[in-house]
Amino acid sequence: QVQLVESGGGLVQPGESLTLSCLASGTIEKIYATAWYRQAPGKQRELVARITSGGMVNYADSVQGRFTISRDTAKNTVTLQMNSLKPEDTAVYYCQATTTIDWWGQGTQVTVSS
Question: Which of 1, 37, 82, 108 has a CA positioned 20 to 30 A from the CA of residue 8?
Answer without folding.
Answer: 1
